[in-house]
Amino acid sequence: MIIRKQHVQMKHDFLASRQVSVRRSNLKLVKAPSLGDQDLHEQKNSIPARFPSIPDQHFGLQSKQRHYFIERITALIEDNIDDEDYRITELCRDAGVSRSQLHRNIKKFTNSSTSEFINSIRLQHAKMMLVRTDLNISQIAYAAGFNDPKYFSRLFKSVFQFSPRVFRKNVNSLIHLRE
Length: 179
Fold this sequence. Notes:
Elements lengths: L1 H24 L11 H14 L10 H19 L8 H8 L3 H12 L3 H19 L4 H7 L5 H12 L3 H15 L1
Helix pairs in contact: 7-8
């Protein structure tokens, strides 16, 4: 019983000392004024002026990284555009990044998934082939890296609002009108 009273007294003394230190360190909290969009824009643009010792090139680093990353991934996809089996796993291997890092960066920089990004590059390639060559739709689908011409046509129509055949017909009629 005596030990318990001593323990309770020690606990009480400890808590009392904590309250004193809390009271001493109790500071008034001041709410920071909210910054409008204009103020944030001015602050962002004034960073190089506030830090003149840091070269200007470091302030555009995010943009340069984005550009370099997207260009590198796009080049890898274009180099293997006709390979139907070139998918995310092979792209990760060639880029030297993990699958999750690839997904995260492509989503951050392009706001699309990795599969959508690969398909968009393949579709742009197919679109150019439709304009510049006389290959049939199936041959273009295989040359653009799609292993199913029907899937290629569905995807092409969902992105460009025209089937590949109608797209080619419209482009050819526009070319003949200009001549």
